[in-house]
């Protein structure tokens, strides 16, 4: 198998760090980015010249283009771009503050867009490449209190569905990677909106424990996706399928039940 060159955002911790290490451990080379490249120094000490630590705030479009160019100048190509940088936000829709929503969208959606745009010219010129957009199961289903997060991740799913059709002729593949809940500290690090007492009863009714998966089990799955000759456009990680299947079936049943109304409006 040919060695791959990766560009990974959000590589300093969580799944991003784990996936960066998995790529390096099998002999690939990685341009690894984080808001503070100092957090990536242990990787450089361990893997030497096969890792390029870069400081990047993905909300800065010019910085995203510059970082990608640094990676191409160093390694000569881009085989896999893994858009992983992002964070969670918890708050009822009525509780969301303007600056909170902007921050969520600027990182999770626009950050993914800027890095994608920066990588596409190189991938088109090469005639190949694989864009892996990390959306989570929160990109295909929804929970109360995660409205801003879902808005950002569902938007990445829609953006990527269009993108996949636009770039297929250039040999570029696009996959939305949809992890379920894992023991990565996601909830503990999520940003919180000021709480309105009116929603206390709603919150109490929602109380449940996440069935957290082992994040180390995701590395091999990711490598299988990027090594596939025909990778999926969407792929779940973890134990989310049955719940998502039920939601989608309910949606189909509703559309079918209302099809006479839909056709009457044609």
Polypeptide structure, described:
The protein is globular, with a radius of gyration of 19 Å. By secondary structure, it is an alpha/beta fold. It has one domain (5-240): NAD(P)-binding Rossmann-like Domain (Rossmann fold), CATH 3.40.50. The protein is built from 10 helices and 9 strands. It starts with a strand and ends with a helix.
What labels describe this entry?
266 residues; 7-stranded parallel beta sheet; alpha/beta; Rossmann fold; 10 helices
Summary of the model, kept short:
The chain is an alpha/beta fold. It has helices at 14-25, 41-47, 61-75, 98-126, 147-167, 186-189, 200-206, 218-227, 241-257, 259-264, and strands at residues 5-8, 29-34, 51-55, 80-83, 89-90, 129-134, 172-179, 191-192, 234-237.
Helices and strands in order:
Layout: E1 5-8, H1 14-25, E2 29-34, H2 41-47, E3 51-55, H3 61-75, E4 80-83, E5 89-90, H4 98-126, E6 129-134, H5 147-167, E7 172-179, H6 186-189, E8 191-192, H7 200-206, H8 218-227, E9 234-237, H9 241-257, H10 259-264
Parallel strand pairs: 1-2, 1-4, 2-3, 4-6, 5-8, 6-7, 7-9
Helix pairs in contact: 1-8, 3-4, 4-5
Question: What is the straight-line distance between the termini?
Answer: 52 Å
Main pleated sheet: 7 strands, parallel
Note the total helix count. Answer: 10
- Give me the Rg, rounded: 19 Å
Share of residues in strands: 15-25%
What is the highest CATH level, the class? Alpha Beta
Class from secondary-structure proportions: alpha/beta
Tally of discrete structural domains: 1
